[in-house]
Amino acid sequence: MTKARSAIIIGGGHNGLICAAYLARKGLKVEVLEARNTLGGGLALTSSHMSLHASILKDLKIKLTSQAPVKTIALGPDGEHLCFSGNTVDGPEAARYAAFREEYLAYAKALGPLMLNTPPRLKDFDRADAMTFGKLGWALRFGLGEEAMREFLRVAGMNVYDVLEERFSAPLLKGALAYDAIIGCHVGPRTPNTVLNFLMRLFHDSGQQRVSAAATTSALEEAAGKAGVTMKCGAKVASILVQSDKAVGVTLDTGEALRADIIVSNADAKTTFLDLLGTRHLDALFAHRISKPRTDGDVARLRLSLKARPTVPGLPDSDLSQRLVIAPDMRTVERAFNASKYGEYSKEPVMDMMLDGRTLSINAAYAPLKLKEGWEAGAEGFKAAVLTVLERYAPGLSASVETAELMTPADMAEAFGNAGGHWHHGEMAIDQAFMMRPVHGTAQYETPVAGLYLCGAAAHPGGDITGLPGRNAAKRILRTA
Amino acid sequence: MTPAASPIDFTRTHAPSPFHARLLDHTITQNWATWNGYQTPRVADTVASEYFAIRSACSVMDLTPMEKYRITGPDAGDYLNRLVTRDVTKLKPGRVAYAVWCNDMGRVIDDGTIFHLSEGVYRLCAQHHQLDWLLLSSIGFDVTITKETHDVAALAVQGPTSFSVLSAAGIQGLDTLKPFGITSVDVAGIPVTVSRTGFTGDLGYELWMDPEHALDIWDIIFNVKFERGLYDIRVIGLDALEMVRIEAGFIMPGFDFNTADTAVRADFDRSPYELGLGWLVDLKKPHYTGKRALVAEHARPAKSRLIKLILDGNKVPSGSFLFDREGGENVGAVMAQTWSPILKRALALGDITLRKGQVPSELWAEIYYQKELKWKLHWAKGTVTDKPFWSHPRRSATPPHST
Questions:
Q1: Cα distance from B135 to chain A (closest Cα, Å)?
Q2: Residues B330 and B232 in one domain
Q3: Using one digit for the tens of pLDDT, what is the confidence trace for A346-388?
Q4: Is residue B185 part of a domain?
Q5: Under a CB-based contact definition with an 8 Å cutoff, are residues B56 and B127 in contact?
Q6: Which residues of B touch A286 (CB under 8 A)?
Q7: Which domain-ending residue is among B82, B116, B147?
Q8: A246-252/A257-259 β-pairing
């Protein structure tokens, strides 16, 4: 095969831009096609406490002006709040928490060889696969040491509820930590392998700069531009063109056809394979497999415009712009999840939020994609449920609401074109992770169709704002295409 | 796409077919087998008389138990072309094609026939239950797939006099019906679909009708013999069919080889190339399930092959191991075998491992046989052939009596 010289990237979210920049820096002529009128995709919805993996900032020479680190404050129903910052937390369990953080950060770090590389195949190993396995084995056995490795292997598949029960006693502390292990996914604290979720989030979270979504987007746009990437907004890809079993281009919804040596999709797997490519270019079992991953979103975003800054008893006004979490204890989180299992929204939702001026942006769980009564009927009820909970922590807040904009998973799917409106383009669970993300047969960024690649959150290592799928995909493409 | 509720009473091990009342009369041995849940004769009278009815006269067999699926909808043609390895886009209405389908790894799931009944309306017939695979393959296609095994009664009428028998029974227009053709006829006011297809390698027809009319059609055919005294017409069972299908070189998935969805061990299933069905694989047509694997396999030397073997001597190599020479290296085993009365030869289908992709021209079978209950060993040399063991020009002549 002759070396690929041009690439089209479908979707200008952060992973698409990162993949584009990496490819362009190696001399490919890259065009990013974004359906929306702005770049950045789902970044627009995220709170500002996440940041790209440090290796990407270094490789793409991105300089971000970091703001003061954001703290997470778990609001207590009694006005006794818990502030998490780095390895510290308020209250009597501070020492335990520090030890826990240190231990779990070490586990997260041990996952590094897996997160930063193409996930190895289990069959037909190549040298890179063997290398990744070797590094992972080394990190687990010698990086962690025998005792810690044993503990890691014990907890990795467990649920976060049981692990936190073993370690802590304060309900609020456990509730807030459990919240971080479940948010964005259709799981509760008692769902198996939520510890793995927690570890992945820790991995992404460890020692990174914290910048706003807007700043991240413009920095990526600039990096891509400097590398020579052409970026086109308002260009909605309708289908992927295939000739002689090779992806050769795309058509836009305007009918325009664009060609390139390789096509890289930052869209989720179902959209890429079922909608854009079409199952007639795929084998039947593969098409079946790719239609199965769990991609139903379970979080809604509520944006409140307030007449005045809210008052939270026990919390100084200066702390209102930190990340506030309402998850008073693990049972409340689990009970909130129960509702969504049966197609209902949580009557007692759990949430995290950030205040920017007088705009309060809330992620509220659980809000299942397929609400039994339908979101048209249920939206007002869910808004009211969120406000009822908020009112307990910030008395008078409801009365101060000017507008309340609810974005359900269905709305997110509509706005961002990701099947199911799932934050991470699919559940982050062990059966949908690593060499099985999104499904085996396309877990190494390659697809069954030559010249077609995945670079988004549907690919390893998945969601959150890490940029690693885009980076890893670019490296894979540069090695194989 | 929900399949209709099964009319089979699962508290019984054998369900009666629409022809059951007549099968009972003819199956004087009461030697029954179960075929896809239906009670079907293994032997009706004697294997010899049934075999010679097929080869020298006219045989009748109840085909109702064969799995039948109706495929309709705007994407029906594209769907089938993505399902099977041969190009069926050129299959015109009123025509039938033999086809084979594979999983993603290019391993054979089953074979069968596709009937293009009328524009965009297809029937797929298969040996084994296929509804789950057909539905799984339908993701992304606008098609409706309905299992109609129990809703269509089918009768195979095969043998050199089958044309004359059916014509005498009042079925018009068979003289212009070409092999693999379909026609719709009216038999004493009963609508019947007739296809010139079969599993015997000889002239023959298959009749498709509403189960409600099954016995009427049966009686009309047998009246040619019983009331008018014309031709020998006999019910046949599975044992006689096994003899003639081997003579014709037809394979039976699940018996001659493991189907992909039943094989437990890796490499115990087979690709079309390994079954000698390479002529059914089109590597140039648009994508179909298993194509990428088959393209890759085609570029490598073949690993194994289901071969046809004509043996010297009169011993039938039941379950024999096959060797490269007498007492030499074991290369495989016999999967199906028969004594062919019409050829006066022992025939076998054998699954063998190939060396460097080369099919040998001769093999030796280690045959164990009994003489007055005493076991003996015999080595028989066999010649490998890639043609059907037996065929007759009337099978493909139109009209059939022109030969």
A1: 10
A2: no
A3: 999 999 999 989 999 999 999 999 999 999 999 999 999 999 9
A4: yes
A5: no
A6: 104
A7: B147
A8: antiparallel
Q: Which domain holds residue B125?
A: 68-147
Which residue(s) pair with B389 in the sheet?
none
In this structure, what CATH number is given to the domain that contains residue B379? 2.40.30.110
In this complex, which of B103, B133, B287 lies closest to A280 when CB atoms are compared? Answer: B287
B286 has a chain A CB within 8 A of its CB: yes
Domain annotation covers residue B3: no
Taking contacts as CB-CB distances below 8 angstroms, the residues of chain B near A285 are 103-104, 136, 289
Q: Span B52-80, mean pLDDT?
A: 97
CB contact under 8 A, A280 and B82: yes
Let me know whether B241 and B158 are in one domain. yes
Are residues B94 and B52 both part of a single domain? no
Concatenate the DSSP letters of all residues of B48-100 into one string.
HHHHHHHHHSEEEEE-TTSEEEEEESTTHHHHHHHHBSS--TT--TTEEEEEE
Say which range, A125-129, A332-336, B343-347, has the weakest mean pLDDT. A125-129
Q: What is the CATH number of the domain that holds B34?
A: 3.30.1360.120
Confidence of residue B3 (pLDDT cuts 50, 70, 90): low
pLDDT of residue A83: 95
* pLDDT of A1: 47
Give the model confidence (pLDDT) of B219-230 as tens digits. Answer: 999 999 999 999
Instruction: Give per-residue pLDDT as tens, A407-452.
Output: 999 999 999 999 999 999 999 888 898 889 999 889 999 999 999 9
Are B137 and A284 within 8 A, CB to CB? Answer: yes
Nearest CA-CA distance, residue A280 and chain B, Å: 7
Give ipTM to 2 decimals: 0.91
B228: burial class by Cβ within 10 Å (0-12, 13-18, 19+)? exposed
Residues B59 and B72 in one domain: no
Q: Are residues B238 and B343 in the same domain?
A: no
Q: Is residue B268 part of a domain?
A: no
Taken in order A227, A232, A233, A239, the sign of the CA dihedral is negative
Cβ pair B82:A284 closer than 8 A: yes
A283–B78 C-beta distance less than 8 A: no
**CATH architecture classification, A6-66+210-294+423-480:** 3-Layer(bba) Sandwich (3.50)
Asked if B140 and A287 come within 8 Å (Cβ–Cβ), the reply is yes
B98 touches chain A (CB under 8 A): no
Give the residue from chain B lying closest to A286, CA to CA: B104
Query: Both B91 and B156 in a single domain?
Result: no
Q: Are residues B240 and B188 in the same domain?
A: yes
Q: How much is the pLDDT for B330?
A: 98
Per the CB < 8 Å rule, is A288 touching B103? no
Do B33 and B82 fall into the same domain?
Answer: no
- Say whether residue B284 is in contact with chain A using an 8 A CB cutoff: no
Residue of B nearest to A246 (CA): B287
**Which one of B180, B214, B247 terminates a domain?**
B247
Tell me, what DSSP letter sits at residue B186?
E
DSSP string, B107-142: -EEEEEEEEEEETTEEEEEESS--HHHHHHTTTTS-
Instruction: Specify the number of domains making up chain B.
Output: 3
Which residue in B139, B141, B288 has the most chain A C-beta atoms within 10 A of its own C-beta, making it the best mutation to test that interface?
B139
Q: Specify if B109 maps to a domain.
A: yes
A436: three-class secondary structure by DSSP: helix
